[in-house]
Amino acid sequence: MATTRSFGSLRPKRGRNRPEKSDAIVAEALRTRQSREEGYREQSLRIHPLVCARCGRHFARDNLHELTVHHKDHNHDNNPVDGSNWENLCIYCHDNEHARYHEHLAAGGTPATEEPPDAPATHSPFAELRDMLAKSKG
Length: 138
Description:
mainly alpha, two-stranded antiparallel sheet
């Protein structure tokens, strides 16, 4: 003889769907969203175009989870508000960049967070501009 189990009523129980509880859940979701938007990823996605800086792949909202924010100096604590230490990379280029960096370190290279030696600039892009302008006028 088979016994049947009772799972109770399928109707919601009284008192479980209180408006104040729903308001608290919505408020918490809004706070979480705001804190997430203050994070460097959301800031970078607002500042930079939704394009991989290496391969040029374009992203839309449906595949945005495949776009990552890369710290150029590999220091995740260096998050300037102007986004100068960030670049948006697709997950493939981001993995490649970190693999190259780890190979660089394994070969005895210096970490990117160390200050490079100060070397004077040797290239002057406008050195011959005056001559080129004079030729075009004359």
